[in-house]
Amino acid sequence: MIKSKKLTKIKNLKHGFFNSIGGYSKKIYKSLNCGPGSLDNKINVKKNLQVVRKKICNKAKNIFLLHQIHSNKFIFIDKKYNNRNKPKADAIITDQKNIPIAVLTADCAPILIYDDKIKMIAAIHAGWKGAFKGIVAKVIKFMIKKGCELENITAVIGPSISQKNYEVKEDFKRKFIKKNKNNYKFFKKKKNKLYFDLTSYIYSSLKKIKITNIDVLNIDTFDIKNKFFSARRALKLNHNDYGRNISIIMLN
């Protein structure tokens, strides 16, 4: 489990970015695969989620997960929230204690957010689509509406694919340039190949909405040495599926 130095300093807050180590899954899912949507043995995935829950806090309720759809949709869990189904969205916001909220990634960026005054947290799954559709700004705006203030917010961008391993096509770049011509700075050409910097794009989105307290972990999920699941690496190895990394935060 990897932690943010900024979030670790905060009392009454638990969080962690988990890689593939310390679970029950076998073969390509070895070993802490937390993705119920993967083709892994469901019993092992449940056991893995319990491992994570206990590492966060023994008293924690079951981990709240989403059916992630690469959107800019989010859900807010308040006292009245009682949806038994897994919502289709890519971010969770809550002010409730002992509810661990989490997102699953395998190259996309997990973002954990905390407001120190209102005591509100968020977990965001931001692949290029969600980031492009403005999921980060949408979540922050909602938190502000609920009483949070920009100077009290800490945002942490967790492990995700690095630019040097994120090859994209020209039409991908055109889409970003069409949205904002300054987006060219997130692209790099090397040996006739084009690469995109997802982390910097998200960092820039946070800066644009005047978040100043940002922690970037800069850990490449594609690099096998870091022991994270990676969709792109799995594709390169001709695997038919891949495990999911979990990033989690909880008020206690």
Summed up:
With 252 residues, this protein is of the alpha+beta class. The protein has helices spanning 5-8, 42-56, 128-132, 135-145, 170-179, 198-208, 231-236, and strands at residues 13-17, 75-77, 91-94, 101-105, 109-115, 120-126, 153-157, 167-168, 187-190, 193-196, 213-216, 245-251.
How would you characterize this protein structure?
The chain has 252 residues and is of the alpha+beta class. Strand 9 (187-190) and strand 10 form a beta hairpin. The chain has seven helices and twelve strands. Helix content is 25%, strand content 23%. It has helices at residues 5-8, 42-56, 128-132, 135-145, 170-179, 198-208, 231-236; strands at residues 13-17, 75-77, 91-94, 101-105, 109-115, 120-126, 153-157, 167-168, 187-190, 193-196, 213-216, 245-251. It has a single domain (5-161, 214-251), classed as CNF1/YfiH-like putative cysteine hydrolases (4-Layer Sandwich).
Key descriptive features of the protein:
alpha+beta, globular, 3-stranded antiparallel sheet, CNF1/YfiH-like putative cysteine hydrolases, 6-stranded mixed sheet
CATH fourth-tier homologous superfamily: CNF1/YfiH-like putative cysteine hydrolases
Give Rg in angstroms: 17 Å
Structural class: alpha+beta
The ordered H/E elements are HEHEEEEEHHEEHEEHEHE
End-to-end separation in angstroms reads 19 Å
Report strand %. Answer: 15-25%
What is the CATH architecture annotation? Answer: 4-Layer Sandwich
- Can you give the helix content as a percent range? 10-25%
- Choose one word for the global shape: globular
- Unreliable stretches, pLDDT < 50, 5 or more residues? none
How many structural domains can be distinguished in the coordinates?
A: 1
Briefly, what CATH class? Alpha Beta
Strand order of the largest sheet: 2-3-6-5-7-11
Count the DSSP helices: 7
Largest β sheet strand count, sense and barrel closure: 6 strands, mixed
